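Researcher: Let's try something more involved. This one mixes different molecule types, so please make sure each is placed in the same coordinate frame as the others.
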Amino acid sequence: SQELEQSPQSLIVQEGKNLTINCTSSKTLYGLYWYKQKYGEGLIFLMMLQKGGEEKSHEKITAKLDEKKQQSSLHITASQPSHAGIYLCGASNQGAQKLVFGQGTRLTINP
Amino acid sequence: EPEVTQTPSHQVTQMGQEVILRCVPISNHLYFYWYRQILGQKVEFLVSFYNNEISEKSEIFDDQFSVERPDGSNFTLKIRSTKLEDSAMYFCAPAGGLNTEAFFGQGTRLTVV
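Model: All components are placed in one shared frame. Result:
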């Protein structure tokens, strides 16, 4: 079965700094989803990547899927307190929408 | 982002009682997925539902669980006899097709006492 490993597990950065979160899969990724979650709340969809080398951006958040399609990174530029939360990556198998999730990365932004 | 409404937002139930969790997608979705997240743990797939039948289920989804779409709109997850370990957030995630964006509902927090 597919496993997703996120790194780091937690991250504390000063407001205004850039940061990167990684998601590594044990198998080829066909669809990679990034979500943000406030502790104990719902999952907010950020981005979906499907093609090797694909890169998408939304406001100050950029996600990439590497060429070999076994790793994705989420990069936040000039972090703000509103970026604080838990970031989750989820992967789907080819032809299916069922998602397998990583354990999450807890991001704290210090003013 | 398409809205997915889940009710109730929070439910406390006694062990052994039946609970029904509801999901109301705004758009016409063909695929429905239920996930759960025990506090502090990973989000786990429970079951997928397509064309009025279960298409895939996980080991978690045992005989105590069932899903249905009773009126063509609402999508429900029923737990017949709740156990303490069923305490978790339950998320509904409908989809319009395969390999499409997957939006989650805000979740139902189930607490079994």
